[in-house]
Amino acid sequence: MAEEFKEITPSDFFYRNRDIAGFTNPSRALYSTIRELVENSLDACEIHGILPDIYIRVSPQAETTADPAVYKIRIQDNGSGLPAEVIPSAFGQVLFGSKYRLRQSVDYNERILIRNGRNIESVEIGRFVEQFLKPNEIIKNIHERGYETLAFNLENFRFSWGRISHVSRHTVDEPLYEVRLEGGRKVRVTGGHSIFIMKDGRIALKDVEQMKVGEYVAVPRTLPFNTYKVEGEKSEKPLKTHAKWDNSNKHENLPGNPSRNIYKCLSHHRAEDEPKNSRIPLTKEFMSSLGYVVGRGEKLQKGPTIRIDGSQIEQSNELAVTFKDTPNIEEQVEIFFSLESGLVLNNPGSTATSISIEIEGVNSGEIPKIAFNIPTELRMAFIEGLYNGGGYVADGEHISFPTRRRKLAYDLMYLLMSIGVFPTVEELELDKNNTMYVIKMLGRNLDEALKVGAKESNEAFKTSADYPDFVFCRIIELRRVKSTSPYAYDLSIPGRENFICGLGGVCCHNTRGTFGLGGKMAVLYGQITTHGQTRVISSVGTSKIHEYVLMMDIQRNKPIVTKHRVHINKSRWHGTIVEFTTEADYSRAMPKILEYLKETAIVVPYANLTFVDPRGRLYRF
After folding, report:
1. What CA–CA distance (Å, rounded) separates 192 from 46?
2. Distance of CA 416 to CAs 3, 211, 425, 454, 608, Å?
3. Could you give the CA distance from residue 523 to residue 559 in angstroms, rounded to a whole number?
4. What does the CA dihedral 376, 380, 382, 388 come to, rounded to 10 degrees?
5. How far apart are CA 133 and CA 184, in angstroms?
6. Over the stretch 433-457, which tens digit does the pLDDT of each residue have?
7. Residues 322-359 pLDDT 10s
8. Ordered DSSP codes for 260-311
9. What pLDDT is attached to residue 191?
10. Which end of the chain is more exposed for a tag (fewer CB within 10 A), N or C?
């Protein structure tokens, strides 16, 4: 049997599995070809600060009235060009590093929002990416896993969930910057990373290392969680109310909130003939109590220890609480919540909702996952309870919540934005190792604060009728910082090219394509379907232009150069021209190609895109 196994090259692997990069049929392959080569051209321009001027032409190789047919693809740009010695490998060797060394990545600790199915959670981008990558991997296709993140649509500039196609990482070998905005929002990214800014009244991209204090950065005004209505099972058991928590010496009471400082502990009377599985309804009172526990920020474990593991969570979507090894259980069992374990939704399509609870080692200092996965009215009840537990009125016009927990601060900002509130945050350094985050809502009481959005009169914030989902915050500081990890991380969201991350959410541009693999897959697909060669002409602006004609040796994963010519470059032209034939179905691919070029022109308004279709029709974007 051992003689039947043999190692294959990367080229052979992608030849056999070309659907991985989007080359499954002539229609999709043509769209992927245009997209990948245009992305490479944009990268070659942007990394060197060149205004992109890109020419795309699709021309039939023979008269035909039916698709699929053989077409010649030609892409020409005015980018940085490729050194002569790397051209053969860049287009004839799979996994050769030909991404113009573009490193658009963020720091490990920057938090992002992830949705898988209906389950939303906040997580560090580094932790999220690392779970998919092996030690020697830098990129992974996770499209089929169904993970999504929040991004804005390039056509209507509205936020929604977009599918993540790839995750990636690279060694931090360049400066890392922290961008701080008025109102406390911030993000840590590599210097070459692009962030969306307001320029001449329009949203545009700019590299962080080229930004200046005083410019305005795009951040989301609100976040559409799109959670679904769920119902908990009704309970006839009353909730037990504990005595007031007297902290009047610390904070001013919140006016108009009689429930201030009351901890409503969820308690359950257990009758002798009652099954050991108890049920708790998911109600506003439940979420308010849970929020209050988080707001108190204390370890509250009392009474018997109660645990629930995964096997005890009922698929019927009821809250299962099993009493184990506790022979002397009192009639009134006080149930406290471990927020470390994460409270999660199960089977959201059923009539009830379940959460898992682990009571050992209670840690009431984080926002549980359940708070991200419930309807707005329940989320609001949780936030009210949290501010009642630890909030106070500051300056007579802000409801403030202080915490030393970084994760709680980041998550609370996202949670507030999900209910339509635009919060601000202030960081106070208590000492070298301790920072206090104060999350503020505009308003003199909770009812008012939860209804107030961005304060448009504040000169530090700008809004625009053209971009209702955005607020533009002024940069107050740009500084170089140390990375919290040896690596920096990125996501790829096809069709969006952006995602939000950081404290309060900053709109960041994601790395396009798959680090050169898509461009080589386009060449490989053309070679497979037409047996044609690829012609590459490039110069880095010197006195010479190099022209190569080549093919890819699939079995050995090496380029086969059939012609190499050197031309005199009198005009000192720089850029790259790629030309090859491929089988394609243009009639089916046309709508997607035109839409892609239109969206690209919107998000990169300074780029000139010229497209000539098989009928000779000229489009300018």
Report:
1. 9
2. 61, 28, 12, 12, 40
3. 12
4. 180
5. 33
6. 888 999 998 887 787 887 765 454 4
7. 333 333 222 222 333 332 323 322 233 322 233 333 32
8. TTEEEEEEEE--TTS-S-------HHHHHHHHHHHHHTS----SS--B--GG
9. 83
10. N
List the beta bridge partners of residue 423.
Answer: none
The upper half-sphere exposure of residue 365, i.e. CA atoms within 13 Å in the direction of its Cβ, equals: 12
Of the CA atoms within 13 Å of residue 219, those in its CB half-sphere come to 34
CA torsion sign for 514, 519, 523, 526 is: positive
User: In terms of DSSP bridges, do strands 398-403 and 434-442 run parallel, antiparallel, or are they unpaired?
Assistant: antiparallel
DSSP string, 105-130: -EETT-EEEEEETTEEEEEEHHHHHH
One-letter amino acid of 232: G
- Rounded to whole angstroms, how far apart are CA atoms 172 and 487? 5
Beta strands in 327-403 (DSSP E): 332-335, 392-394, 398-403
Asked if residue 249 lies in contact with residue 274, where contact means CB atoms within 8 angstroms, the answer is no
Residue 198 structure tokens: 């307001």
- Report the length, in residues, of the chain: 621
The encoded tokens of residue 305 equal 């220890």
The residue type at 385? G
Instruction: Provide φ and ψ at 8, rounded to 5°.
Output: -115, 155
Angle, CA 440 vertex, CA 435 and CA 444 arms, to 5°: 140
Which residue reads 């030909």 in tokens?
98
For residue 384, what is the DSSP state?
A: H
Distance separating alpha carbons of residues 238 and 322, to the nearest angstrom:
20
Q: What is the largest CA-CA distance in the chain?
A: 95
| CA–CA distance, 74 with 584 (Å, rounded to integer) | 14
Cα separation of 572 and 563, whole Å? 23
Q: Which two tokens stand for residue 116?
A: 């898988």
Residue 25 carries which side chain, given as an amino acid letter?
A: N
Q: What's the CA gap between 584 and 581, in Å, rounded?
A: 9
How far is Cα 82 from Cα 503, in angstroms, rounded to an integer?
A: 38
Q: How far apart are CA 92 and CA 523, in angstroms?
A: 8
| Cα 251 to Cα 230: distance, rounded to the nearest angstrom | 35
pLDDT value of residue 171? 84
Task: Of 160, 159, 163, 125, give the one whose Cα is nearest residue 143.
Answer: 163
Q: What pLDDT does 411 receive? A: 94
Helix (H) or strand (E) holding 503: none
How many CB atoms are located within 10 Å of the residue 365 CB?
19
Give the pLDDT score at 569.
93
Which one, of 353, 304, 372, lies nearest residue 333 by Cα? 304
* Neighbour-count burial for 234-244, b at 16+ CB within 10 Å, e otherwise: ebeeeeeeeee
Give average pLDDT by consecutive 10-residue segment, the chain, 621 residues: 48 55 80 89 77 94 82 93 81 62 76 89 94 85 89 86 85 88 94 84 84 94 70 35 34 36 32 40 72 66 34 29 30 29 30 31 61 86 87 83 92 93 91 87 81 58 91 94 91 81 89 56 88 93 92 86 94 93 94 92 89 94 90
